[in-house]
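Entry 0007
Protein: NAD(P)-dependent dehydrogenase, short-chain alcohol dehydrogenase family
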Amino acid sequence: MGNEKLTMPTFDLTGKVAIVTGGTKGLGYGMSMVLSHFGADVVVSSRNQADCDEVAEEIKKTGKKALGVQCDVIVKEELDELVKKTVEEFGRVDIMVNNAGMGITKKVIEMSEDEWDTVLDTNLKGVFFGAAAAAKEMIKQGDGGRIINISSAGGLVGTKNIAAYCASKAGVVSLSKTMAMEWGRYGITANTVCPGYVPTSINKKPLEIPKVRDQILSKTALKRLGTIEEIAAVVTFLASDASSIMTGAIVAADMGTTCN
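Output (C-alpha cells):
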C-alpha cells in the first residue's frame, strides 16, 4: 500500500533535565518521582530545603540523579537562582514544571487584599517568572524545551469560596497560550494541566467527609477521584517527545468534572 515508515513516539526522558516547583509533596512529589522514573535528572524545589533534600535523596536511591533547591516562587530572584543552580549542576534545563500553588477558602466579600495578593503571587506570578527563567535558558541552549504549567479544573469553571484560586488558575491557562505563541519559534512548547480533585495530604481530611466527597463525585463523569500517579503521567507525556505536536493546549485531567 506504500505506507510511510513510522517513527515510534517515546516517553523516554533520558538525558533531559527537569525542574519541579512544589516538588516535595502531593502532586509535585509524584511528578518528581515519575519524571525521574522515565529517565530525567530532576531538580526538586520547595520552600523547605530539608524537604527538597529528602526527595532528592529518595530519587538518588533509585540510581537516578537529583538535586534539592530551596525556592519561594513568590520571589523572582529565587526562581532565577533555581534555574542557575540547575544549569550549574546539570549543564542545562529541558523541562520546567511550574507546580507550586496554594489556595485560601473565603467568600469574595470576606477576602483581604493581602490574601488575594498571596494567592495570585504564588499561583500566577510564580508561574510567569518560573517559566520565563527556564525559557531564557532553553532559548540560549537552542534545542527547544518543555514548559508545563499546573492550573486546575478551578481555572476552567467557577467554584464558590475560592475566587482568588480560580482567578489565578484561569490566568495560568491564558498565560500558557501566550507563552506558546512567543516561544514556539524556538521549539519550546508551553502546555497547561488542569487537575481535578486528587487526595493528597493537603485535602485528605475534607475528602474523608462523606457529604463533601459525595458532592465532588457527583460532578465527575468517572464518579471517582484522581490519583497522584495519573496527574504525574499526564505531566510526563507533556515532557516527552510523544507530545511534540502540542503547545498552548489545556489538558483537563479532572475525571470529567468540566464536561458540563
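Curator remark: The CA atoms of residues 52 and 68 lie 4 Å apart. The two ends are 43 Å apart (CA to CA).
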